[in-house]
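Input/output pair, single chain:
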Amino acid sequence: MHQHPTVHLPVYKEDGTSNSTEELEVEQLGENHFRLIYSPGVVDGLAGGDEFALTKSDRLGYTIIKRSGNLCVWFYFSKQGQNRGPAAADVRAQVEQIGGWCDGGMNYLLVFTIPVSRGFHVIEPLFDSLVKQHPGSTWFYGNVYDPIDGQTPLRWWEPT
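Output:
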């Protein structure tokens, strides 16, 4: 099994404080230039394939160099362990049908990477439907909204 280098990025709570990090597998492209192998499970603002640089001056701990064109989607089940077994297999299969893939998960969570080219008009109804199929679950985008306020769309997918 190929071992990738890792970087640690800060994880922020809703109150804006950070007391932990997430270890992320990367491909090193140059000095302080990395490509994310998988979408993160808790770090906001990134998706698998994004290129970034580590920065001490940025509150997030990184600066985007180039977006991959992928969305990061977090699907939370209502009970621990549901991210393994039949419920998880069902969710993964439905996401794969629209061209996405599961990068992993933990406890209650599955982490997906989906090309933005599939369209929000396809992705959002699918996840809304999955929430109805799996009562008590919820989902969030990991890289659509500003990581600082959690509300302002980043709009990186729009033509410039």
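The first helix runs from residue 86 to 97. The first strand starts at residue 6 and ends at 12.
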